[in-house]
Each structure stands twice: as structure tokens, then as C-alpha cells.
Amino acid sequence: MFRVIPTAVSLFLAVLLCLSSPLSGSAEVPEFTVSLPESVKGYTPCEITVVSPAAGEAELRLYDRLDNPWLVRRETLSEGENILPWDGLGANQERLMAGPYHFDVTLRTGAGAVYSASASFQINATTPTLVYALPSSETLYLDHGERWFVEVYVSAECLITMEVLDASGAVQYTRELNVSEPDGTVIRWAGTVTPQRQIAPGEYTVRCRSKLNPDYVFTFPLTVRETSPAEPEIGPTGPVIPERGMSDGEIWEIMMKPSVVIAGNGPSLRIDLYKAPRYGAAAGSLRCATQGLEILDIEGKWAHVRAWTHTNGSEVTGYIRLERLTVVYPGTHYGVLIDEREQTLTVYRDGHPIGTVPVSTGLAVRGSAYRETPAGAFLTDMHMGASFAQEGYRYEYPLRYDAGNIIHSVGYVRLGRVRDYSRNLPLLGQKASHGCVRVSPFLTGDSPINMYWLWTHLPWHTRVIILDD
Length: 469
Description:
Elements: E1 33-35, E2 39-42, E3 46-52, E4 56-64, E5 69-77, E6 80-86, E7 99-109, E8 114-126, E9 130-135, E10 139-141, E11 149-154, E12 158-165, E13 171-179, E14 185-188, E15 192-194, E16 197-198, E17 202-210, E18 218-225, H1 248-255, E19 259-262, E20 271-274, E21 282-286, E22 291-292, E23 294-299, E24 302-308, E25 315-321, E26 325-328, E27 334-339, E28 344-349, E29 352-360, E30 376-379, E31 387-390, E32 393-396, E33 399-400, E34 406-409, E35 413-414, E36 419-420, E37 437-439, H2 451-457, E38 463-467
Parallel strand pairs: 2-8, 10-18, 27-38, 34-37
Antiparallel strand pairs: 1-3, 3-6, 4-5, 4-7, 7-8, 9-11, 11-14, 12-13, 12-17, 15-16, 17-18, 19-26, 20-21, 22-30, 23-24, 24-25, 27-28, 28-29, 29-37, 30-38, 31-32, 33-34, 35-36
């Protein structure tokens, strides 16, 4: 919901007012107008003023100069002046690139009349604000407090406050941090309240916000426990990815399984699987610490595993030393299922699918087999910065889930102050990427999911399962 916060309208208010007759063909033309301030800032209250000739249901659609659809709002209007608060953000509260935009508004009255109007304006800059705050876990173990952190990202340099509140709402710990990094920033907390005292085990709420723009608040529960559970013994895991046709409950059960992963390797270190339980000929190679391995059996100090290689995406079995492996747990609220055959991505929340969108996975061509998107069970890594450039395109909201591949928005080129997605957006639903998973920046159908939603909602170690085609 939007908050109503009155603001002063600039003396240089400039709007494009388009009047139309009702589509019913009435000879008299009642006035229907839409206006905004000439200049709008992201994360900053402003007002959309709609003067309506009658009560009815209105649809407001926000477009940039290339008619990219950034927002759809549906409002019930009364006759006369209507003030609609807005904060200059897109459908999932994404910051919009500075440049020219327009709202197209359609009104349908109870009598069947239809009116339309449009208003043009500029988006310029953004108020420094906390964009997201995502915990590494909802449990902090005091004996290993160094493992817990919150990832934060800001729209521009600002002072962030993190507070830990007890069950009564009393603040037990406060930390302030000036964040200016262009990438996400990690705030670590080991549960220490003072140099001599740790917080007591119990149930808490963590609240994060920027001091300059505190209306954008992020809260999440935090359980503090004295000791962490012992690491389970590594043994046969059973399947780590579901079969097509499984129920949502069966898929979720597999998503929530602990992962056996390669311990402590850097993001680009390559680990060989051997054809026999000894050092020798390689059956394939893996190169990330977030890829879950299916353990087939244990043979002495060796694990016999199944996985998908990063050289060409093929399924292989091989052996790896047990000492190289460890067990990690996925986040408990979200899971992502990517189907390479259907070219879709589905998000699960607490066991239930909440949206499915088309994607583009890797298109392997002769001489570039590495571009195949490997199947498997992965965990998301730390968030990357807001965008990166490659081969003439810029890609936004990269979310790494292994050493080589990322989930990110489809690529665009800049045309002045507007993004042009026309080359890559039509390729969604078919293989087209260099191995990464591309997602639309816009909402598709009834799904609430776009790439910005994924980037701001999926925390570290969210399960990502990719089904082979």
C-alpha cells in the first residue's frame, strides 16, 4: 500500500493533459485529467492527481519512452479530484532509471463509459534508502556467531540502523553503519551486546532501515541459541533433484534437504571427480561450493557421487575424498525450480508455488559446450552488485548460485536515458544465454515475480534446483 504524504507541487508543474470523450460516443466531453509533478524521485512521496468526471474503476500504466511497462495500478476513483500517493518506484518497488516516463490512465464508469488520459513527467535521481536486508539465517548460534550476517543494499550512500528487539519490543542491541559500497554490504553480528556480554538465547526481531528515509523498514524474526547442532555424518543422500510430475509437497521436501557440498573452495577453483576411489583419471569436474552432490555410497575415505559438470553440463558419476565435503542447510522459506525443458522458473514459498515466469537458459553451440546450463541442486551465494556488462549488453540484479552461472535480468542497451530490451526480451522461453538464467525485468501474466523480486527476496543459501532437459 502507498502512504498518503502531502508534498508541495513545483511552480514549474508541466504535464501532458489528454482529454478524450467516452468511447460510448457522447457529444459532450467531460473533463478527465491526470497530472504529476514535473520531476519525481525514487523512494520519495509524490502525488498523482486524477480529476474524474464520474466514479469508476481506473487502471494506471507506467511506461518509459520505449513503452517498457514498469507499473500497473488499479484504483477506485470518485467523481472530482482524486489524490493517489506514489513513491516513484516500479511494480516491485524497483528504482527506475532517470529519464522521461508517462502514465496512461483508463477509467471505466458504472454506466459503461470509458475515458482515457495521459501525463508525462521525468524521474530524476533517488532518495538514499535501504533497498533490502536479507539475513543469512533466522537462527544465530552463539558458539558460532561469526557465521551470521545480514546482507544489505542501498540506493545511494546512507546511514543504516540495525536493531534487535526482544519479545516485548524493547531494543536490546543497536548498530549504525554508513553504507556506500556499490555492491551489497554484509553486516556481521555474533550476538555480542557489550564487549563483556552476549545477548540471551531467545526469540527476537531484527529491524533494519536507513536513518534518512526510515519509512522503508525491513524486519525478520531471529532465534538465538546457545550451541549449534553437530554436523551430520555424510552418507547416501538419495535424489537431490525432483522428477517431473512430483507433487509440490515432494518437490519442497527435496528442496529442504541438507546439501553435501565441496568445503572451502574458492568460486573459481576446479575440483575433479575421479573414475575410481583413488587419484587418477578424471570423470569430470566441479567448480563451486554451492552445488549439492548426490552421494551414492561411501567407500572408505571416498564418496561416490553424482553431479553435472561445468564443462558441458553433462551428468557424471565419480569419486571425491570425504575430507573435501561438508554439509550445509538451505534457507527455509524460499526455493527456486528451473526447468530447462520448459524454460520456466517457479518460486516456492513455505512449500507452495507463488509464481512461474519464462526464462532463457544456456544455448550450447559447436565449440562452446560450456554454455550449457548445468542441472543440479544449488544454493545462492552472496548477492552481486546491481548490474554488470558483457558483450555489449548490461545485465541487472545478478544473483549467483554457482561459480560460473548467475540468475539475472535480460540484457539491455542504453538509448539515451532509457533501457532497450528489444533484442533479448523476445528470447525468453527458449535457450539463448551463455549459461546463466535470464529473467524478465517486467511482470509476466499474473505472476508477482520479476528479476528485481528475486534479487530483493532470495537470501543467501536459497535452494535453486535446475531440471535437465
